[in-house]
């Protein structure tokens, strides 16, 4: 899928626990779009919001190019923590299958988090990490749009989504929201 105007942005891929393996849609998108940059954590097995957000802040600070974020699971929580507490040129964020902040004991920390850009939360009706109604609740708290993608589990490699065309269409929707020439 060709995404017009994508080259006008730096795209950061922000995985969740275990770093999104090779068959995860995030990894597949990185192969489709080699310009995408992954935020790499020191320890993918330890979901430490403070450390992960610090690492993301470091990566965000490396460029002044407008940035689109494509986050998954705990990466969504990392995005909310890092992006809402820094001054970065964020153009938009696609937050897919966020992990429930309550499961990680960070709900109080993230309750006041906001993104300074258009954003879309995508949830799944059978996600074991956060029920769709909870994802919609958090999207509302964070000031994001919400889309239920149906029954896709945790929207990860186990969901067998391949390149996840529905997600690419939502990335295009986000591009349409942030790029003035798209409308």
Could you say which structural class the secondary elements and strand pairing correspond to? alpha/beta
> What overall form do the CA principal axes indicate?
globular
- Determine the mean pLDDT: 94
Number of strands: 6
Q: What radius of gyration results from the CA coordinates?
A: 15 Å
**N- and C-termini, Cα separation:** 19 Å
Arrangement of strands in the largest sheet? 2-1-3-4-5-6
Output the number of helix runs: 6
Main sheet?
Answer: 6 strands, parallel
SSE succession: EHEHEHEHEHEH
pLDDT < 50 stretches: none
% residues in beta strands: 15-25%
Helix content: 25-40%
What is the gist of this entry?
The chain is an alpha/beta fold and 183 residues long. Helices cover 32% and strands 16% of the residues.
